[in-house]
């Protein structure tokens, strides 16, 4: 009896140890599989994020302000979606400027943060690293300063270094890197940078498309938000071929709404046509034209579509 008792105790302890180790390694393997799947999704250019809540950070200037700060949250809300928006703003900032600010860790930006309730918080003296880690962003957007947006050579040095900085300084997550395609100026713009394009709107637009497409290909950008094409599509309509308030910034009534519609459809993968959000002072006909212009920009981001 004593022998049997010792035998049972001896082997029972081994059995319990085997069960414990099996459970332990099973849990660890499950965790590793989940982590691998998440990492793969975050780093694969073929994976498309499709979800109801999106977090996007724009490292930009007044052109990103025109695009994301005014109507995007309300378009999302109307479609039953949610969005957190960060706009790291410095007026007239180029890609070179942003790169220099990372190298000096400069606290020179104004940070506009819109939460899930579209409530805004504005913080001065912000820097890029802090903004990158304020949220686990799904997307981090960059853009070239408008007068250089159609000049590919101005992307070549700063953009890959900025991408490297973002990838190195995002702690615990891997955002998609996207480019915000800016728009061509008004035909009558007096902006000095318009001379880079022979003061020709169509030439400027085509140059922007080419520069952004090359940058996407050469620097492994996840996708382009084709705001410039959305604006150019809208310029084929009765809305007119200007759509700016000063020759280069978008006008407040319809220009900014066009940009937001492009961003909405591109981010959420939801057709903006039929979205019920209607900015004050914009007619039903204008809404129809704008939403079509934005939709076809997403479908054909490198080509102007005549909107009827």
TrEMBL record:
<dbReference type="InterPro" id="IPR032616">
    <property type="entry name" value="DUF4886"/>
</dbReference>
<feature type="domain" description="DUF4886">
    <location>
        <begin position="55"/>
        <end position="297"/>
    </location>
</feature>
<protein>
    <recommendedName>
        <fullName>DUF4886 domain-containing protein</fullName>
    </recommendedName>
</protein>
<dbReference type="InterPro" id="IPR036514">
    <property type="entry name" value="SGNH_hydro_sf"/>
</dbReference>
<dbReference type="GO" id="GO:0016788">
    <property type="term" value="F:hydrolase activity, acting on ester bonds"/>
</dbReference>
<dbReference type="Pfam" id="PF16227">
    <property type="entry name" value="DUF4886"/>
</dbReference>
<feature type="signal peptide">
    <location>
        <begin position="1"/>
        <end position="29"/>
    </location>
</feature>
<keyword id="KW-0732">Signal</keyword>
């Amino acid at each position: 009896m004593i022998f049997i008792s010792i035998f049972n105790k001896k082997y029972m302890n081994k059995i319990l140890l085997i069960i414990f180790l099996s459970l332990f390694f099973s849990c660890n393997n499950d965790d590793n599989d989940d982590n691998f799947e998440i990492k793969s999704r975050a780093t694969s250019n073929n994976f498309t994020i499709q979800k109801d809540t999106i977090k996007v950070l724009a490292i930009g200037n007044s052109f990103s302000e025109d695009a994301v700060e005014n109507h995007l949250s309300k378009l999302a809300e109307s479609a039953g979606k949610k969005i957190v928006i960060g706009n790291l703003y410095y007026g007239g900032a180029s890609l070179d400027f942003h790169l220099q600010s990372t190298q000096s860790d400069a606290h020179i930006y104004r940070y506009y943060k819109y939460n899930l309730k579209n409530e805004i918080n504005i913080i001065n003296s912000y820097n890029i690293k802090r903004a990158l880690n304020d949220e686990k962003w799904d997307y981090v957007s960059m853009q070239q300063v408008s007068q250089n947006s159609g000049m590919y050579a101005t992307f070549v040095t700063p953009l890959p270094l900025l991408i490297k900085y973002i990838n190195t300084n995002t702690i615990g997550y891997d955002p998609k890197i996207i480019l915000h395609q800016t728009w061509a100026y008004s035909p009558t713009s007096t902006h000095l940078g318009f001379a880079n394009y022979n003061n020709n709107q169509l030439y400027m637009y085509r140059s922007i498309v080419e520069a952004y497409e090359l940058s996407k290909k050469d620097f492994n950008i996840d996708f382009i938000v084709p705001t410039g094409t959305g604006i150019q599509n809208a310029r084929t309509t009765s809305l007119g071929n200007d759509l700016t308030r000063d020759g280069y910034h978008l006008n407040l009534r319809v220009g900014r709404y066009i940009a937001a519609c492009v961003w909405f459809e591109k981010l959420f993968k939801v057709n903006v046509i039929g979205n019920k959000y209607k900015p004050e002072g914009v007619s039903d006909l204008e809404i129809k034209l704008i939403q079509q212009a934005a939709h076809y920009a997403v479908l054909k981001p490198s080509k102007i579509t005549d909107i009827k």
